[in-house]
Amino acid sequence: MTIKKICGIGAGYVGGPTCSVIALMCPDIRVTVVDKSKEKIAQWNSTKLPIYEPGLELVVKKCRGKNLFFSTDIEAAIKEADLIFISVNTPTKTFGIGKGRAADLKYVENTARMIADVATSDKIVVEKSTVPVKAAESIMHILRANHKPGVTYQILSNPEFLAEGTAIDNLINPDRVLIGGEDSPQGREAVEKLCKIYENWINRDKIFTTNTWSSELSKLAANAFLAQRISSINSLSPVCEATGADVTEVARAVGLDSRIGSKFLQASVGFGGSCFQKDLLNLVYICECLNLPEVAAYWQQVIDMNEYQKSRFSTKVIESLFNTVTDKRIAMLGFAFKKNTGDTRESPAITVAKNLLDEGAVLHIYDPKVEEFQIIDNLSAFDIDNIKNRVNIYHDAYSATKNTHAIVLCTEWDEFMELDYERIYVQMTKPAYIFDGRKILDHEKLQKIGFIVQTIGKRVSRIAVSKTWGSSTQM
Ligand code: NAI
């Protein structure tokens, strides 16, 4: 039996784009994406999709109503599917055992129980969500303990490696596809069926099959390695600032070693996104549970370095502005955790905004793709006085920066490189500051205009701050 019908459970940043690309590449397969959120499904069926991702709209337009469907009828979609992708969220637990570190698997478990309740024919169940090692065992346990006579299940691990902002390209041209399955004839058969789906557009030599546990652990390991590279280069940025080295030059020199490579060595205000921190915390927790404290401490340090970088950047802003930002208007350019997405989960901008608000600043925030309600919602999570009057959202960079004392750039949107900074300078309070948390601006040009420029990992405008007297001298 070949796969004719697929059900994708979870219509989020992973489930939506992955299922849409499968529908595009496999016109003979009917793909139904389901979610418990009625609003989200209504958006997937509208002209304004619930997530922004370059190229996604076009893919959805091409397939929706033909072989791609979005629905809230989860039971019907499970019943008719030959293969089910589980792409639900696996956030960090906020309560109980493992609070703040372990992955919360309640959504995965709920879907497993629903599949067991509803299925009347054999199913291949594929974990696409990022899960702790051995999660497939729990899913299998639930399914097999509740199975109906004659219904069999195979569980596969097929972690998703897409990056938000480039998801469609990553899905169409992946570096690799990883599929883990049970080492049994039935397991191998299920792996083969999933391989066949991907082979519609991906070369077989890019499809890597392993045992289930290697596959599950590889996803956590890949994110841990990526985050570690960022923390490694970020850890050198204060060394550069203190010595006169330039972190961009150091990163380039280091990255030219072919054993190291140049990617993911861009120093910045810190990493964000829903995955890196969550998956690292999960890895740390697994190591602690396995009684491997040294390994846990090693990976914990990657997260600690990221926290340090975010707070170091906020402190730099405050210190440079004469050690006080109380009642100062500060423009924040960018709120998403990176460019080309509207996602703000774990965005460094949230931490920077909170730190500035704690010090009494008034924020003028602009992001090209993040909605106003999202920013307010993110900042409302903190106990901040009078937040409504102190957080103002703008719809373009020029109005956001008007009459402000400083610009804090938190997201590397291309449009921020193309702004008319002379125009911006004229309408700012003087001295006018720019803090480039992403190292994307032309610092020399900005200094010529008159800005005092600060960035990460390089001395641009030199500042001598007297901590005792709270005054600073710009040079
Ligand atoms: P998301 O939060 O955007 O989407 C998850 C969706 O699942 C939500 O719409 C939610 O309503 C739905 N859902 C939860 N329980 C459900 C249920 N029982 N029935 C139906 N729908 C249900 O999450 P996102 O970002 O798509 O992540 C999903 C998984 O993929 C996570 O495990 C994440 O770690 C992993 N991942 C995420 C990547 C990313 O860039 N966002 C990249 C690679 C993996």
Q: Main traits of this protein?
A:
binds 1,4-dihydronicotinamide adenine dinucleotide, six-stranded parallel sheet, 18 helices, alpha/beta, 475 residues, 43% helix, UDP-glucose 6-dehydrogenase, NAD binding, oxidoreductase, disordered C terminus, UDP-glucose 6-dehydrogenase activity
Number of strands: 16
Stretches where pLDDT is under 50 for at least 5 consecutive residues are 464-473
Mean pLDDT: 95
Radius of gyration: 24 Å
Shape: globular
Helix content: 40-55%
Named once each, the bound ligands are: 1,4-dihydronicotinamide adenine dinucleotide
**Strand portion:** 5-15%
Q: So how many helices?
A: 18
How are strands sequenced across the largest beta sheet? 3-2-1-4-5-6
Distance between the termini: 73 Å
Biggest β-sheet, characterized? 6 strands, parallel
| Coarse structural class | alpha/beta
How would you portray this structure in words?
- The protein is an alpha/beta fold and 475 residues long.
- It has helices at 15-25, 38-44, 56-63, 74-80, 106-118, 135-145, 167-172, 185-198, 212-243, 247-255, 276-289, 293-320, 348-358, 372-380, 387-390, 397-401, 421-426, 443-449; strands at 5-9, 30-34, 68-71, 83-86, 123-127, 153-157, 177-181, 207-211, 329-333, 362-366, 391-393, 406-409, 433-436, 452-455, 463-466, 471-474.
- Strands 3-2-1-4-5-6 form a six-stranded parallel sheet, with helices on both faces. Strands 11-10-9-12-13-14 form a six-stranded parallel sheet, with helices on both faces.
- Strand 1 (5-9), helix 1 (15-25) and strand 2 (30-34) form a beta-alpha-beta unit.
- The radius of gyration is 24 Å and the shape is globular.
- The termini are far apart.
- The protein binds 1,4-dihydronicotinamide adenine dinucleotide (NAI).
- 1,4-dihydronicotinamide adenine dinucleotide (NAI) binds at residues 9-15, 34-37, 40, 74, 87-90, 107, 110-111, 129-130, 160, 162, 164, 274-275.
